[in-house]
Amino acid sequence: MTFPGEQAQRSRAFARRGGGGPLWHFLRGFLKHPVMVGSVIPSSKVLIDRMLAPVDWANCKLFVEYGPGVGTFTQEVLRRLPADAILLTIDTNADFTTYLGGKIRDSRLRAVTGSAADVRRILDDFGLDHADYILSGLPFSTLPAGVGDAIAGATAEVLRPGGAFLVYQFSPKVRQFIAPHFERIDRGFEWINIPPATLFWAWKD
């Protein structure tokens, strides 16, 4: 017979050993931090390809990802990223950060536990100036009051001119957060995803 406390200890030990696949970790992260994870199912390959299509990879030296989760986008970004570039991921969930660090062995990856609202400080900590592109799947409409505005403002500050904020959401309300900071915002919609997603490419002209 296993008592609840013993089961919890076993689950934590299992997680520390890296047990369970990406979907298990994604679901676990959603249950622990539901307002910070946009969906219980990782993004589709079709959505990923479409979201990343406008990126000028040849001239990308620093790519930032908010809320990488189990690395569904992370691995695709690294596959496209130049050999001398950096991918910085920021997640409030330390479980996801630990999982990424154990799963992906790539010297270009910098996985950080923290808030996207602190992106300026995090870049400074690494001696980095400006990001070329920033990707986010964070659910802006369910974030605590003020957090979405803070993230949008901080993102606009650290992007270089000509860079873009790439956002995929399951609610179009995110536009109200990013519109005050970006004059040009392209919009799309992708049905081949669970759930279907609204896509935004906000450019810093």
CATH architecture annotation: 3-Layer(aba) Sandwich
Question: What fraction of residues sit in β-strands?
Answer: 15-25%
CATH homologous superfamily grouping:
Vaccinia Virus protein VP39
Number of domains: 1
**Major sheet strand order:** 3-2-1-4-5-7-6
- Mean pLDDT across all amino acids: 85
Q: Which of globular, elongated, flat, extended, rod-shaped describes the shape?
A: globular
End-to-end C-alpha gap: 63 Å
Q: What is the β-strand count? A: 7
Walk me through this protein's architecture.
The chain has 205 residues and is of the alpha/beta class. Helices cover 36% and strands 23% of the residues. It has a single domain (4-203), classed as Rossmann fold (3-Layer(aba) Sandwich). The chain contains 8 helices and 7 strands, in the order H-H-H-E-H-E-H-E-H-E-H-E-H-E-E. The longest helix is centred in the N-terminal third of the chain and has 13 residues, at 4-16. The chain starts with a helix and ends with a strand. The model is unreliable at 1-19, 22-27 and 29-40 (pLDDT under 50).
